[in-house]
Amino acid sequence: MEIFGVLASIVLLVGLIVWLKIHPFLAFLATSIFAGIILNIPLQDIPQAIETGIGSTLSGLVIVICVGAMFGKLVSESGAAQKIAQVLIGAFGPKRITWALMLTGFIVGIPLFYNVGFVLLVPLVFSVVYQSKLPAVYLGIPLLAALSVTHGFLPPHPSPTAMVPMFNAELSTTLIYGLIVAIPTMILAGPVFANALKNIKSTPLATFTPKDLPDNQLPSATNAFATALLPVVLIAGLSFLPSQAATGSQLHNLFTFLANPSLIMLAALAVATYTLGIRQNVKIQTLMERYADAIKDISIIMLIVAGAGALKQVFVLSGVSSDIGALMQNLAINPLLLGWFIATVIRICLGSATVAGLTAAGIMAPVLPLTGADPNLMILAIGAGSLMCSHVNDSGFWMFKEYFNLSVKDTLKSWTLMETIVGIGGITAVLILDVFV
User: What does the alpha-carbon distance between residue 338 and residue 177 come to, in Å, rounded to a whole number?
Assistant: First the structure.
């Protein structure tokens, strides 16, 4: 059966990345060639399949992901994230400080990519630790749980955004469903779970003591909140416009133009360039240098997305979807649960949430029409699986351990368990939502 070719390809991908330490992009390309051969695709068609997969995957993503990276960089460098944290912590007070940190991670994490958000916001947590004398892990987990759910569930983050065209889903619908799934999940994995971590002792390294911008250099609270949330508000709000006019009419065409996610991200960046840049007396040259740095930060992720698209196209061309579809029918398992499980297994093996999510999507995308599952919910189910069980093969595991100066045991008890709660809570919320949509 061709299903064994898929399994062999996954084993090869894991081996190349984990044991041979090959870069994921090169590992995806090598695996795509191997999969094409073992799945009996004519040799002359394999290069075209790889090129088509890369092109079709990136074509609708480059603007959203790259402009999103620029937007997040500006939120970071301008001090908007710092201002948001100050306002929320002041509003919630010391008794509900974990909730304030969770909301900080959620709001700031929407435009910021995960690693950038981690490096930016963890020092803010340590600032609160030194002021409040509360345990560092107790304060840090709610914020990082919020960062995690935005990374796994919400566009414009790379994995959920990349899966939208793979499943022929709607970016705005995925975002709205993602918000519904993310909120209860981060509450459970954040403030609720953090109460069990008060006894974990942690002395953050002095290296990571924050160097905050002075208050007179920060944007106003209104500016910071409005700008940081602008992409989400526009994508969710404008998604309903095309349905308000007759198909084919000039008004419908205008609304479709205005609701396009790429256009929305460009408009949001233009607004942010003024509100968090020019209005704060930052020179255009400096802003463009920051944007160039943001592209450098995201280039590796774009390559991984491209590689995953190549492997997906090889699976599609091979016709393996028929075998997988028949197997799923015999298993009598909810396809959303199967997508979550596949992503979980790959996540445990590889460590990378992005690679796990996109690989699972490449397997599930060809058979999705046979299952009748909602494509937007499949994206979220796979996203939940891609966050499961972070352990020693995940860079996030070691970043958390070193920043918080913890033992491996305490990192497993806090970070790993938090990520597992996010994964289980996420798929539970997806399955509940599936009943109503």
Answer: 19
Owner of token pair 């959303």: 336
Residue 341 to residue 272: CA distance in whole angstroms? 39
Spatial contact of 186 and 145, defined as CB atoms under 8 Å apart: yes
List Cβ<8 Å contacts ≥24 apart for 390-399: 390/347, 390/351, 390/353, 390/415, 390/416, 390/419, 390/420, 391/348, 391/351, 391/416, 393/18, 393/349, 393/350, 393/351, 394/351, 394/352, 394/353, 395/115, 395/351, 396/114, 396/118, 397/351, 399/115, 399/118
Contacts of 298 (CB under 8 A, 6+ apart): 65, 66, 69, 113, 158
Predicted TM-score of the model (pTM): 0.73
Q: Which residues contact 163 (CB under 8 A, 6 or more apart)?
A: 169, 357, 358, 361, 378, 379, 382, 383
Which runs of E-coded beta strand occur in 230-313? Answer: none
CA triple 16-385-22, angle to 5 deg: 15
What are the counts of helices (DSSP H) followed by strands (DSSP E) for the chain? Answer: 23, 0
The string of DSSP letters for 90-111 reads HHH-GGGHHHHHHHHHHHHHTT
Q: How far apart are CA 343 and CA 230, in angstroms?
A: 31
Higher pLDDT, 156 or 175: 175
Which whole-number Å values give the CA distances from 429 to 107, 195, 425, in the listed order? 20, 22, 6
Cα 123 to Cα 194: distance, rounded to the nearest angstrom = 18
**246-296: pLDDT as tens digits:** 888 888 899 889 888 888 889 999 999 999 999 999 999 999 999 998 888
CA distances from 315 to 322, 362, 366, 367, 435 (A): 11, 7, 8, 10, 30
Q: How many residues does the chain have?
A: 437
Nearest in space to 385 (alpha carbons), one of 404, 366, 367, 363: 363
Amino acid at site 337: L
* Alpha-carbon distances, residue 115 vs 91, 126, 144, 206 (angstroms): 27, 17, 11, 20
Find the radius of gyration of the CA atoms of the chain. 22
In three-state secondary structure terms, 62 is helix
pLDDT digits (tens, 9 = 90+) for 67-111: 888 887 888 788 887 888 788 888 888 789 999 999 988 987 887
